[in-house]
Protein backbone atom coordinates (compact mmCIF):
# COMPACT_ATOMS: atom_id res chain seq x y z
CA UNK A 1 0.00 0.00 0.00
CA UNK A 2 2.69 2.49 1.00
CA UNK A 3 4.81 1.44 -1.96
CA UNK A 4 1.94 2.28 -4.32
CA UNK A 5 1.52 5.74 -2.79
CA UNK A 6 5.25 6.49 -3.05
CA UNK A 7 5.33 5.33 -6.66
CA UNK A 8 2.27 7.45 -7.49
CA UNK A 9 3.87 10.48 -5.82
CA UNK A 10 7.08 10.04 -7.85
CA UNK A 11 5.09 9.96 -11.08
CA UNK A 12 2.74 12.87 -10.36
CA UNK A 13 5.11 15.31 -8.59
CA UNK A 14 6.96 16.45 -11.78
CA UNK A 15 3.62 16.91 -13.52
CA UNK A 16 2.32 19.00 -10.62
CA UNK A 17 5.46 21.17 -10.61
CA UNK A 18 5.29 21.82 -14.35
CA UNK A 19 1.61 22.74 -14.06
CA UNK A 20 2.34 25.19 -11.21
CA UNK A 21 5.28 26.67 -13.13
CA UNK A 22 3.00 27.26 -16.11
CA UNK A 23 0.29 28.88 -13.97
CA UNK A 24 2.80 31.22 -12.33
CA UNK A 25 4.48 32.05 -15.65
CA UNK A 26 7.93 30.87 -14.54
CA UNK A 27 10.30 29.37 -17.10
CA UNK A 28 11.73 25.89 -17.03
CA UNK A 29 15.44 26.24 -16.16
CA UNK A 30 17.58 23.28 -17.18
CA UNK A 31 21.19 23.24 -16.08
CA UNK A 32 23.47 21.89 -18.80
CA UNK A 33 26.89 22.37 -17.18
CA UNK A 34 27.96 23.65 -13.80
CA UNK A 35 31.17 23.47 -11.85
CA UNK A 36 32.59 25.22 -8.86
CA UNK A 37 35.87 25.56 -7.07
CA UNK A 38 37.15 27.11 -3.87
CA UNK A 39 38.98 30.43 -3.47
CA UNK A 40 39.80 31.17 0.14
CA UNK A 41 36.53 31.02 2.06
CA UNK A 42 34.13 31.15 -0.86
CA UNK A 43 33.20 29.35 -4.02
CA UNK A 44 33.38 30.34 -7.67
CA UNK A 45 30.62 28.96 -9.89
CA UNK A 46 30.52 28.76 -13.67
CA UNK A 47 27.98 27.06 -15.83
CA UNK A 48 25.43 27.18 -18.59
CA UNK A 49 21.66 26.88 -18.41
CA UNK A 50 18.83 26.51 -20.88
CA UNK A 51 15.78 28.67 -20.21
CA UNK A 52 12.51 27.44 -21.74
CA UNK A 53 9.55 29.81 -21.24
CA UNK A 54 6.17 28.28 -20.44
CA UNK A 55 4.29 30.90 -22.46
CA UNK A 56 5.45 32.71 -25.57
CA UNK A 57 9.06 33.39 -26.47
CA UNK A 58 12.02 34.10 -24.26
CA UNK A 59 12.12 37.79 -23.39
CA UNK A 60 14.39 40.12 -21.50
CA UNK A 61 11.81 40.71 -18.77
CA UNK A 62 11.46 36.99 -18.16
CA UNK A 63 15.20 36.64 -17.71
CA UNK A 64 15.48 39.75 -15.53
CA UNK A 65 12.85 38.42 -13.15
CA UNK A 66 14.43 34.97 -12.87
CA UNK A 67 18.13 35.75 -12.27
CA UNK A 68 17.96 34.35 -8.76
CA UNK A 69 16.41 31.11 -9.98
CA UNK A 70 19.08 30.71 -12.66
CA UNK A 71 21.92 31.14 -10.17
CA UNK A 72 20.34 28.88 -7.55
CA UNK A 73 19.60 26.11 -10.08
CA UNK A 74 23.20 26.09 -11.28
CA UNK A 75 24.53 26.23 -7.70
CA UNK A 76 22.37 23.35 -6.50
CA UNK A 77 23.42 21.25 -9.50
CA UNK A 78 27.10 21.95 -8.88
CA UNK A 79 26.76 21.16 -5.17
CA UNK A 80 24.96 17.94 -6.00
CA UNK A 81 27.95 16.87 -8.14
CA UNK A 82 30.44 17.48 -5.30
CA UNK A 83 31.19 14.78 -2.78
CA UNK A 84 29.69 15.01 0.70
CA UNK A 85 33.14 15.43 2.27
CA UNK A 86 34.25 18.23 -0.06
CA UNK A 87 34.61 21.63 1.61
CA UNK A 88 33.52 23.38 -1.60
CA UNK A 89 30.01 22.04 -1.14
CA UNK A 90 29.46 23.94 2.11
CA UNK A 91 31.21 27.27 1.48
CA UNK A 92 29.15 30.36 0.56
CA UNK A 93 28.93 31.61 -3.01
CA UNK A 94 31.30 34.51 -3.76
CA UNK A 95 31.28 34.67 -7.56
CA UNK A 96 29.04 33.15 -10.21
CA UNK A 97 28.90 33.51 -13.97
CA UNK A 98 26.19 31.61 -15.80
CA UNK A 99 25.65 31.59 -19.57
CA UNK A 100 21.97 31.53 -20.54
CA UNK A 101 20.97 29.82 -23.78
CA UNK A 102 17.72 29.79 -25.73
CA UNK A 103 18.39 26.51 -27.54
CA UNK A 104 19.74 23.19 -26.35
CA UNK A 105 23.10 21.90 -27.51
CA UNK A 106 25.50 19.14 -26.54
CA UNK A 107 27.49 19.83 -23.40
CA UNK A 108 30.84 19.80 -25.16
CA UNK A 109 29.62 22.49 -27.57
CA UNK A 110 28.28 24.67 -24.76
CA UNK A 111 31.68 24.80 -23.06
CA UNK A 112 33.22 26.77 -25.95
CA UNK A 113 30.12 28.19 -27.60
CA UNK A 114 31.31 31.67 -28.57
CA UNK A 115 28.93 34.47 -29.47
CA UNK A 116 26.25 32.63 -31.40
CA UNK A 117 22.71 33.95 -31.65
CA UNK A 118 21.43 31.34 -29.19
CA UNK A 119 23.54 32.73 -26.36
CA UNK A 120 21.07 35.07 -24.69
CA UNK A 121 23.14 36.58 -21.90
CA UNK A 122 25.48 35.96 -19.03
CA UNK A 123 24.25 36.44 -15.48
CA UNK A 124 26.92 37.34 -12.97
CA UNK A 125 27.02 37.68 -9.19
CA UNK A 126 30.19 39.20 -7.81
CA UNK A 127 30.88 39.39 -4.08
CA UNK A 128 34.66 39.19 -4.39
CA UNK A 129 36.81 41.98 -5.83
CA UNK A 130 39.85 39.94 -6.91
CA UNK A 131 38.13 38.35 -9.89
CA UNK A 132 38.17 40.49 -13.01
CA UNK A 133 36.27 38.81 -15.85
CA UNK A 134 35.40 40.47 -19.16
CA UNK A 135 31.82 40.62 -20.33
CA UNK A 136 30.52 39.50 -23.71
CA UNK A 137 32.12 41.54 -26.48
CA UNK A 138 29.74 44.24 -27.69
CA UNK A 139 27.13 43.41 -25.08
CA UNK A 140 24.64 45.65 -23.36
CA UNK A 141 25.29 45.67 -19.63
CA UNK A 142 22.44 45.87 -17.16
CA UNK A 143 22.55 45.78 -13.37
CA UNK A 144 19.61 44.61 -11.28
CA UNK A 145 20.47 44.61 -7.61
CA UNK A 146 23.45 42.33 -7.14
CA UNK A 147 22.99 40.67 -10.54
CA UNK A 148 24.87 41.88 -13.62
CA UNK A 149 23.36 40.83 -16.94
CA UNK A 150 25.39 41.12 -20.15
CA UNK A 151 22.97 40.81 -23.09
CA UNK A 152 24.37 39.29 -26.28
CA UNK A 153 23.97 41.82 -29.09
CA UNK A 154 23.39 39.14 -31.76
CA UNK A 155 20.51 37.66 -29.72
CA UNK A 156 19.02 41.13 -29.25
CA UNK A 157 19.28 41.81 -33.00
CA UNK A 158 17.72 38.43 -33.81
CA UNK A 159 14.73 39.11 -31.50
CA UNK A 160 14.15 42.64 -32.85
CA UNK A 161 13.77 41.25 -36.37
CA UNK A 162 11.17 38.64 -35.30
Which descriptors apply to this entry?
6-stranded mixed sheet, alpha+beta, 5 helices, 6 strands, 162 residues
Topology at a glance:
Blueprint: H1 2-24, E1 28-39, E2 42-52, H2 60-65, H3 67-81, E3 93-101, H4 107-111, E4 119-126, E5 140-144, E6 147-151, H5 153-161
- Number of helical stretches of at least 4 residues: 5
**Largest sheet, strands/sense/barrel:** 6 strands, mixed
| Strand segment count | 6
Estimated radius of gyration = 17 Å
Order of helices and strands: HEEHHEHEEEH
Average pLDDT, all residues? 86
Shape: globular
Number of domains: 1
What is the beta-strand fraction? 25-35%
Q: Which strand order do you get reading across the main beta sheet?
A: 1-2-3-4-6-5
Helix % is 25-40%
pLDDT below 50 for ≥5 consecutive residues: which ranges? none
Euclidean distance between termini CA atoms: 54 Å
- Quickly give the structural class: alpha+beta
Give a brief outline of the structure.
With 162 residues, the chain is α+β, with helices and mostly antiparallel strands. 36% of the residues lie in helices and 31% in strands.
Amino acid sequence: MLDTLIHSFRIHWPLFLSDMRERLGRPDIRVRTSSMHCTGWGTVLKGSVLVLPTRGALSQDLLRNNCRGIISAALSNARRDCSLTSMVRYLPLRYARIAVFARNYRRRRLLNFGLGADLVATVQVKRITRIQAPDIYGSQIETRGRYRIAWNSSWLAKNRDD
